[in-house]
Amino acid sequence: MYYKNIVISSSEVDASYRLKLSSLFKLTQDISVEEVEHLGLGKICREKGYLWIITRLELQINRLPNYLEEVTLKTYPGKNRSYIYPRHYLFVDKNGEVLIKMIALWFIIDATSRKPIVLDEKTFPLYNESVENELGYPKRIVSTQAEVLEERKVRSTDIDLNQHMNNTRYIDMVFDLFSNEELKKKNFRRVIVNYSSELYENDILTLKGYKTPQIYVEGSSSGKRAFEILIEE
């Protein structure tokens, strides 16, 4: 298991001094990259022209860490299935309480063809772990009552090193549909995200969904579904 101790900074919290979900996604993304580099797999992927992409994730929240709180972020890979490489994450406070559990389903694509790649385990020395009460694979989100909420244009600052909109920006777009006063009253417990297709600079994104009794938002561009997010309190 790979882990790091972190202190929640002012740039990572919202107006209520709680860790933002987009900051949470950034922290899990960063520690994933760190471990891949630590194992030497990052260099191999770059040489072969492979990219790591998230297709689906789920997290369960007991409590969001607060500003200046010290927490330990732990991560470990689960057993892969075909071209899906699951990775688990735990946010643990200084008393050993698990604040957040998360699972992300990663896969690897060819940077040119954008097609999935199944890794050769002789070239890529992978390992997997399992802990008690870990989250299972996230399910697909199904909803049929969506109405148009907003249109957004994908900007240059949304784009990451994989040349598409970073996965953390999706959650920021959802939260931008609410005022700070609305967000202060919410106590998020479960989040599921399905990523269906990539978004690129200048794409026009149509957001559809609803805000009650739970938050559901889907995004499409040029008639193609890009993502779905379900947030439960």
Q: What proportion of the residues is helical, as a percent range? A: 10-25%
How many angstroms separate the termini?
Answer: 30 Å
Count of helices? Answer: 4
CA-based gyration radius: 18 Å
Based on helices, strands and strand pairing, what is the structural class?
Answer: alpha+beta
Average pLDDT level: 91
Q: Report the sheet-strand fraction.
A: 35-45%
Shape: globular
Number of strands: 11
Low-pLDDT residue intervals, each spanning 5 or more residues:
none
Largest sheet: 11 strands, antiparallel
SSE pattern, N- to C-terminal = EHHEEEEEEHHEEEE
What are the SSEs and their pairings?
Elements (H helix, E strand, L loop, with lengths): L1 E6 L13 H18 L2 H8 L1 E12 L8 E8 L7 E9 L4 E13 L5 E2 L29 E7 L13 H9 L4 H5 L5 E6 L8 E7 L4 E7 L2 E9 L1
Antiparallel strand pairs: 1-3, 2-5, 2-8, 3-4, 4-5, 5-6, 7-9, 8-11, 9-10, 10-11
Explained architecture:
The protein has 233 residues and is α+β, with helices and mostly antiparallel strands. It is 17% helix and 37% strand. A hairpin with a 4-residue loop joins strand 9 and strand 10.
Briefly summarize what is shown.
With 233 residues, this protein is α+β, with helices and mostly antiparallel strands. It contains four helices and eleven strands. The longest helix has 18 residues, at 21-38.
